[in-house]
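#onboarding

Welcome to the new folks! Below is a worked example of what a typical request in this channel looks like: someone posts a single protein sequence, and someone else replies with the predicted structure as tokens. Don't worry about understanding the tokens yet, we'll cover that in week two.

Example request:
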Amino acid sequence: MVNVIGLGYIGLPTTLMMASHGVEIIGTDLNKELVATLNAAKTTFKEVGLDELFADALKAGVKFTTEYQVTDTYIVSVPTPYDKFSKKVDAKYVVAAVKQILGICPKGATIVIESTVSPGTIDKFIRPVVEESGFKIGKDINLVHAPERIIPGNMVYELLHNNRTIGADDREIGEKIKEIYATFCQGEIVVTSIRTAEMTKVVENTFRAVNIAFANELAKICRHDDMDVYEIIKICNMHPRVNILQPGPGVGGHCISVDPWFLVGDYPTLQRLLMSL
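Example response:
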């Protein structure tokens, strides 16, 4: 059985998707009102295809509770805000969830961190918590990082079709977790190291942030000189090695504007570069 911790915009669709594809799963959230709403067969936010997915998951026997479960696999999907002053990730919710898990889990359990984190966060914050609790990593507790890759407005489709990354200390454990995600994920699932998985997620969103910023600056230039930025981008993108994104009102969403800071948090040179942009 899988216990998903955190039933927000990522945890809930993940729970429903796994349940509807045959995974025995229980979703846990400390918000009693949220859990009560879900147990009343009502979704807590609107998303294309979510109500249908919820109906399928209910038929499959999905359950929701405020209690952490005794099981062999946990997926932590809680928020990871960043400190606006230091520009670093605040891992307190992930740490709190892991501590709760360690208080009840059996030896041999696997803890999967889905929350987006800075490179090195699991080494700095999660491993010490596990070790301080008296568990030996790789023997008593297995750690995995499987960062989410979905966008609000298209979550259900992207859960099914996007490629996924599984970072694990042990290849065999990574393959076992891959099997769980493969019950529904139709994209490619790559198994790698935890640090690489941490890095790739924030690099992806940083790449998009840089390219969106470029597109927006290009739009300003074209507007100033009375040129059609969309025609220019269309022509430029005819080049086989050019892919300029579309300009917009900003970088969009929550992740794109934040994740670059997750990337540079421990790299002073990159941080100075980002602050100068």
